[in-house]
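STRUCTURE:
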């Protein structure tokens, strides 16, 4: 009698969930991708492992201060904060992916302190674009939030231009990432038109 039947690949579960959202009258456009329940290249740490490793809080005081996350977290955006937390709880087990990650981090470090300072200056104060985008797709975003969305997209475009100019041509992986960031330019222009219609920003 389970609504999804005997789930093997998860397709039935996804279909039932989307139908549930449709029944509630909620939009489904914000679902860009469906992640696998288990990713072969990652290890999903259970609650016991997360607690024993003190990833997010200490065992004795149950305090975030002193945890691994508190030591390495230097994120300047809400998106980075969530992504770092997600990656800590699901570390790579693939040697290839680990080497790729080390190489990408090394390439960013090789840019030098001057470029790194500019990157951090751009990221500082960035709005939560992921959550604002959800409001855009659900058509519930307010004019003030739309202004913040435009501000964040402009920052992403500025960041992509900085990295494109600073990275050597051989860094293919990072340049592919920059190409994704450059897609924000189109969204930025669309957001600008929406802002003009709401008359909430003037220059």
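SEQUENCE:
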């Amino acid at each position: 009698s389970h609504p999804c039947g005997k789930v093997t690949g998860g397709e039935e579960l996804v279909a039932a969930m989307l139908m549930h959202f449709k029944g509630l009258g909620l939009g489904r456009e914000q679902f860009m991708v469906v992640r696998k329940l288990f990713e072969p290249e990652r290890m999903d740490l259970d609650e016991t492992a997360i607690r024993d490793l003190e990833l997010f809080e200490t065992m004795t005081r149950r305090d975030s201060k002193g945890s691994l996350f508190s030591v390495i977290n230097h994120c300047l955006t809400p998106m980075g904060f969530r992504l770092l937390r997600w990656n800590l709880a699901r570390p790579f087990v693939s040697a290839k992916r680990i080497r790729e990650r080390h190489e990408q981090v090394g390439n960013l470090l090789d840019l030098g302190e001057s470029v790194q300072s500019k990157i951090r200056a751009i990221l500082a104060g960035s709005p939560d674009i992921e959550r604002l985008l959800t409001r855009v797709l659900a058509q519930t975003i307010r004019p003030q939030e739309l202004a913040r969305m435009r501000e964040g997209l402009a920052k992403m475009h500025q960041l992509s231009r900085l990295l494109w100019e600073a990275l050597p041509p051989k860094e293919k992986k990072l340049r592919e990432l920059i190409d994704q960031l450059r897609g924000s330019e189109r969204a930025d222009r669309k957001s600008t038109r929406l802002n003009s219609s709401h008359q909430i920003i003037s220059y």
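REMARK: The chain has nine helices and no strands.
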